[in-house]
């Protein structure tokens, strides 16, 4: 392809516009479409549950009734508060530790060579493998569950941040050095800003993995929490409680992700992060 053809091809590429920048009319249209999709999914669920044993597939009405019962006796709210506290604490600590470690590993070769064996080893060991050890070492209380969330978060954030640091524009790095910027100033003015989108992506991915981990941790050693609720439902043969726990996890994760995206847009406007 000739150079003129390449230029014309790239000139026809329109960058994607984030949903939050769309006109209100178009945002409302997308909301209605999503609402219709959810309503259709619930209708299909209801049809599938007709003539089916509730132990196998409870109906939407039965699940909703059970959710009301759990709300009224306080179980639902207590489970949300317990799981949210563990997720947000472990995830927050993982982000706070993972970002600086990722910056150091990405910018300094000797740090990367020293920590890379540990990163490459432990990131392939699932957190559920450490559940028993976490309970033995840290006890069955909150600390063991927070540690598992931290474990599942820190490696994801570290690797994504390191990738962002290594993708920094070499021309900008050379320009900073040519203007007399030292190592610290170069990192803060060139490396960190170019790595922000990677940090945000790593934090969001880690949030999803935190929800995967919390269920396993709470099933093994917890009296409260959404994972404990699901396990209790199994013991009592209340499949509808399992559905309530699963739906709550999905809605809670959706809400947390939206909060992270909103906070990122507000706090990092200068870096033009589109999430």
TrEMBL record:
The keyword Transmembrane helix appears for this protein: yes
CDD domains named among the record's database cross-references: TM_PBP2
Domain of life of the native organism: Bacteria
Membrane topology classification: Multi-pass membrane protein
Entry-linked PANTHER family: ABC TRANSPORTER PERMEASE PROTEIN MJ0413-RELATED, ALKANE SULFONATE ABC TRANSPORTER-RELATED, MEMBRANE SUBUNIT
Function: Probably part of an ABC transporter complex. Probably responsible for the translocation of the substrate across the membrane.
Protein name: ABC transporter permease
Assigned protein family: Belongs to the binding-protein-dependent transport system permease family.
Keywords: Cell membrane, Membrane, Plasmid, Transmembrane, Transmembrane helix, Transport
GO BP terms: alkanesulfonate transmembrane transport
Membrane-crossing residue ranges in chain numbering: 31-50, 87-108, 120-140, 146-165, 186-207, 241-260
InterPro entries the record matches: MetI-like, MetI-like_sf
Species, as recorded: Azospirillum ramasamyi
ABC transmembrane type-1 domain segment(s): 80-260
GO cellular component: plasma membrane
Gene3D superfamilies (alphabetical): MetI-like (1.10.3720.10)
Cellular localization per UniProt: Cell membrane
């Amino acid at each position: 392809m000739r150079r003129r053809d390449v230029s014309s091809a790239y000139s026809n590429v329109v960058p994607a516009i984030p949903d939050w920048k769309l006109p209100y009319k178009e945002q409302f249209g997308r909301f209605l479409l999503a609402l219709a999709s959810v309503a259709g999914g619930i209708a299909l669920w209801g049809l599938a549950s007709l003539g089916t044993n509730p132990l196998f597939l409870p109906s939407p009405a039965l699940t909703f009734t059970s959710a009301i019962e759990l709300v009224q006796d306080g179980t639902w709210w207590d489970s949300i508060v317990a799981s949210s506290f563990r997720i947000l604490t472990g995830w927050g600590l993982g982000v706070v530790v993972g970002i600086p470690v990722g910056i150091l590993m990405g910018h300094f070769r000797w740090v990367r060579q020293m920590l890379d064996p540990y990163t490459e080893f432990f990131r392939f060991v699932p957190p559920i493998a450490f559940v028993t050890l976490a309970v033995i070492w840290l006890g069955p209380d909150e600390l063991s569950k927070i540690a598992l969330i931290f474990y599942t978060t820190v490696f994801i954030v570290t690797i994504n941040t390191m990738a962002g640091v290594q993708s920094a524009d070499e021309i900008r790095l050379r320009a900073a050095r040519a203007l007399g910027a030292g190592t610290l100033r170069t990192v803060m003015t060139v490396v960190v800003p170019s790595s922000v989108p990677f940090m945000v992506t790593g934090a969001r991915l880690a949030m999803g993995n935190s929800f995967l981990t919390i269920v396993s941790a709470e099933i093994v050693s917890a009296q409260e929490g959404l994972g404990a609720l699901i396990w209790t439902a199994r013991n009592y043969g209340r499949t509808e409680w399992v559905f309530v726990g699963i739906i709550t996890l999905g809605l809670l994760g959706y809400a947390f992700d939206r909060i992270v995206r909103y906070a990122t847009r507000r706090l990092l406007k200068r870096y033009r992060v589109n999430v």
